[in-house]
TrEMBL record:
Domain PurM-like C-terminal, chain residue ranges per copy: 179-341
Alphabetic keyword roster: ATP-binding, Cytoplasm, Ligase, Nucleotide-binding, Purine biosynthesis
Primary location class: cytoplasm
Pathway linked to the protein: Purine metabolism; IMP biosynthesis via de novo pathway; 5-amino-1-(5-phospho-D-ribosyl)imidazole from N(2)-formyl-N(1)-(5-phospho-D-ribosyl)glycinamide: step 2/2
Family the UniProt entry places it in: Belongs to the AIR synthase family.
Alphabetical list of Pfam families matching this protein: AIRS, AIRS_C
Reactions catalysed according to its record: 2-formamido-N(1)-(5-O-phospho-beta-D-ribosyl)acetamidine + ATP = 5-amino-1-(5-phospho-beta-D-ribosyl)imidazole + ADP + phosphate + H(+)
SUPFAM superfamilies, A to Z: PurM C-terminal domain-like, PurM N-terminal domain-like
Organism: Arenivirga flava
Residue ranges of domain PurM-like N-terminal in the record: 61-166
Protein's name in the database: Phosphoribosylformylglycinamidine cyclo-ligase
E.C. no: 6.3.3.1
Length: 368
C-alpha cells in the first residue's frame, strides 16, 4: 500500500533529515570528548566504553548520576542563546559523581524538542561535548527526539546521565567525617542551574524581559542569568590525588540549598554551623533578592548564594587543600567546622532528600 504524503511522518511534524543533519554538525565536537576507550564513534544504537582499566582496581565501584537543567532553559530559548546550556547539564550531572571521589568515565544526553533545528541542536550538544572534554568525560551517545503537538516548535528540554568509577577504599562520604573536620566553601560561578523558577517569577513581577539591559545586574538580563555552571570535576579530582585522605566528604550545592546539601554528607549525630560572615553573596543574588523583596538568608534553601561546592576535610590538611584549590582557580575558604558534641539542634537542617544525615545551620550576617 502506498503511503499518502499527507499521512507521512514528515506531515506529522517529524523531520528525520533534520535530525541526521544535526548529527553531522555535532560529530566533531563529540569526537573531541572521546579517547581510545570509546568504541564505535557516533551513531550506534549503544555507546561502547572499554573499562579494562577497572581490572587494576581492588574493588571497583561504579557511580551514576542523572539530571537536567530545569527552567533555566526558558532563558536560553528567550534570547536564542544555546551554547552554554550544555555546560550546565554536564556540571549538574558529572559533579554529582566527583563528590563521592569517583572519576567520571562517560556520559549520554537526551534532547526533546518540538522541532529539530539542526544548528540549534548542534550548539546544545557542542556545549555538552566541550564540557565533557573539560571534565575528562567521554560523550558516548545521545538522542534527539521531536515531539510535535506536545511541545512548541521552539521548545526543548535536555537531560543527561553519566557513569564514573571509584576504588571502594577511596569512597568519600559520611563514614569518613570525624569531629573537628573543617568545612571548606568553594565559590560558585553564579546561580548555576537551580532556583530559576523563582528567578523567572521575580523578573515577571518586575516587568523585565530577558532581552532588557539592566545596570544593577550589569548587562543584558538573560545573558547575565545564563552564566554557565562552574565545572569542578578536574580540580577536585586533582586535589584528591594531591592530598590523599585529606578530603572526607564533599557536597554539591544544588536543589535544596546550602545547609540541606551539606547535611546529606555528614554522619548522624554530627553538626556544623556555617558562618555567613566568611563570604559576600555575589551581586546577582543580592539584586534578585532585592527585586523580590526577600532577605538573603530566606533564600538559602533555594539558591547557592555563592557556594557551589562544600568539602569536609581533615583539620590538619585544611590549609593545604585550600591552597591547592586556590591555585587551580577555585576561590576557597573555611566556612565552619564539624562537631559531634551534644547540643540542642533546634533550628538546624537535619538530613535531606531521604538521607538521615547530620545537622547544619547558617549563622551570623553576610559580609558586605
Amino acid at each position: 500500500m502506498t503511503e499518502h504524503p499527507e499521512n507521512s511522518y514528515a506531515a506529522a511534524g517529524v523531520d528525520t533529515a533534520a535530525g541526521d543533519l544535526a548529527v553531522e554538525l555535532m560529530k566533531q565536537s563529540v569526537a573531541a570528548s572521546q579517547g581510545p576507550q570509546v568504541l564505535g564513534g557516533v551513531g550506534g544504537f549503544a555507546g561502547l566504553f572499554d573499562v579494562s582499566a577497572l581490572k587494576d582496581f581492588e574493588r571497583p565501584l561504579l557511580a551514576t548520576s542523572t539530571d537536567g537543567v530545569g527552567t533555566k532553559i526558558a532563558i536560553a530559548q528567550a534570547i536564542d542563546k544555546h551554547d552554554t546550556i550544555g555546560q550546565d547539564l554536564v556540571g549538574m550531572v558529572v559533579d554529582d559523581i566527583v563528590v563521592i571521589g569517583a572519576k567520571p568515565l562517560f556520559m549520554t544526553d537526551y534532547i526533546a524538542c518540538g522541532k529539530v533545528f539542526p544548528n540549534r541542536i548542534a550548539e546544545i550538544v557542542g556545549g555538552i561535548a566541550d564540557a565533557c572534554t573539560a571534565t575528562g568525560t567521554a560523550l558516548v551517545g545521545g538522542e534527539t527526539a521531536e515531539h510535535p503537538g506536545l511541545m512548541g516548535e521552539h521548545d526543548y528540554d535536555v537531560a543527561g546521565a553519566a557513569v564514573g568509577a571509584v576504588e571502594a577504599s577511596l569512597l568519600l562520604g559520611p563514614e569518613k567525617v570525624v569531629d573537628g573536620d573543617v568545612v571548606l566553601a568553594i565559590e560558585s560561578s553564579g546561580l548555576h542551574s537551580n532556583g530559576f523558577s523563582l528567578v523567572r517569577h521575580i523578573l515577571a513581577g518586575r516587568g523585565l524581559s530577558y532581552t532588557d539591559r539592566d545596570d544593577e545586574l550589569g548587562g543584558v538580563v538573560g545573558e547575565v542569568l545564563l552564566e554557565p555552571t562552574r565545572l569542578y570535576t578536574s580540580p577536585l579530582l586533582a586535589v584528591i590525588d594531591a592530598h590523599p585522605g585529606a578530603i572526607h566528604a564533599m557536597s554539591h550545592v544544588t536543589g535544596g540549598g546550602i545547609a540541606a546539601n551539606l547535611a546529606r554528607v555528614l554522619p548522624v549525630g554530627s553538626w556544623a554551623e556555617l558562618e555567613r560572615s566568611t563570604w559576600t553573596p555575589p551581586e546577582v543574588f543580592r539584586v534578585l533578592a532585592g527585586w523580590g523583596g526577600h532577605a538573603l538568608d530566606s533564600l538559602e534553601g533555594t539558591w547557592n548564594l555563592g557556594i557551589g561546592m562544600l568539602a569536609v576535610v581533615s583539620a590538619a590538611e585544611a590549609d593545604a587543600v585550600t591552597a591547592t584549590l586556590q591555585a587551580a582557580g577555585l576561590p576557597t575558604w573555611p566556612v565552619g567546622r564539624v562537631s559531634t558534641s551534644a547540643r540542642d539542634l533546634a533550628g538546624f537542617e537535619q538530613g535531606a532528600k531521604g538521607v538521615d544525615g547530620g545537622a547544619v545551620r547558617l549563622t551570623g550576617a553576610y559580609a558586605v
